[in-house]
């Protein structure tokens, strides 16, 4: 049975870079964000529950979820964020657990890419935790540039999550993503070797 690695970080910490590097080593990645998008597609029960909770104005004309509008509502309102998480997280967790159990019988390792691994109390899903870390200023600049946000909008999103420094203290391993992709890859290579996970397996 393969080892289950929980991959987490903060918004704009470069977690997707590390996720893609795991895949290059032949290690499958179950991405919570992708699963979360799938479970709120039109026709899915979770989308109907979100509309019940937030109203039909969070839908686009084609019946799909208006993520930007919903994001604007929940990032500044903890109570509404918890309502949304209460709808989406259990469905995502169920689907990810099924994928995890299938993949770990076929591979030496499987990665669960979960942005809110700590915040959502999901540590029981994984054996080891890897945190992708960047300096706060780099995180802020990357997020503003990537999502075309003002500094305040970017800070709202960063502050809605546990700090990267706190996450790093709770991790089994920390990957410093301040540098180049090659520098990040070298750290991951060393980590996989130390955990006896063979590349390309």
Feature tags:
201 residues; 9 helices; five-stranded parallel β-sheet; 51% helix; alpha/beta; 5 strands
Structural class: alpha/beta
Assign an overall shape: globular
Enumerate the strands of the largest sheet in spatial order, edge to edge or round the barrel: 2-3-1-4-5
H/E series, N to C? EHEHHHHEEHHHEH
* Rounded average pLDDT: 93
Percent of residues in beta strands?
5-15%
Based on CA atoms alone, the radius of gyration comes out at 17 Å
Helical content stands at 40-55%
Strand count, sense and barrel status of the largest sheet are:
5 strands, parallel
Give a count of the beta strands, DSSP E runs of length 2 or more.
5
Distance from N terminus to C terminus (CA atoms, Å) equals: 13 Å
Q: Which blocks of ≥5 consecutive residues have pLDDT under 50?
A: none
Count of helical regions? 9
Structure description:
The chain is of the alpha/beta class. 51% of the residues lie in helices and 12% in strands. The longest helix has 26 residues, at 78-103. It starts with a strand and ends in a 7-residue tail after the last helix. The model has no long low-confidence stretch (mean pLDDT 93).
């Amino acid at each position: 049975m393969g080892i289950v690695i929980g991959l987490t970080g903060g918004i704009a910490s470069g977690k997707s870079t590390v996720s893609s590097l795991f895949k290059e080593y032949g290690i499958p990645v179950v991405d919570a964000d992708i699963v979360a998008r799938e479970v709120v597609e039109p026709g899915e029960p979770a989308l109907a529950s979100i509309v019940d909770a937030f109203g039909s104005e969070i839908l686009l004309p084609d019946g799909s979820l208006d993520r930007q509008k919903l994001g604007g509502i929940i990032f500044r309102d903890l109570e509404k964020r918890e309502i949304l998480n209460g709808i989406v997280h259990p469905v995502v967790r169920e689907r990810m657990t099924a994928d995890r159990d299938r993949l770990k019988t076929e591979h030496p390792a499987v990665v669960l890419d979960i942005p809110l691994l700590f915040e959502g109390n999901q540590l029981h899903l994984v054996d080891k935790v890897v945190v992708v870390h960047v300096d706060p200023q780099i995180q802020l600049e990357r997020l503003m540039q990537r999502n075309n946000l003002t500094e305040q909008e970017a800070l709202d999103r960063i502050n809605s999550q546990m700090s990267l420094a706190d996450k790093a203290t709770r991790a089994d391993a920390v990957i410093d993503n301040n540098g180049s992709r090659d520098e990040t890859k070298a750290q991951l290579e060393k980590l996989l070797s130390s955990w006896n996970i063979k590349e390309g397996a």
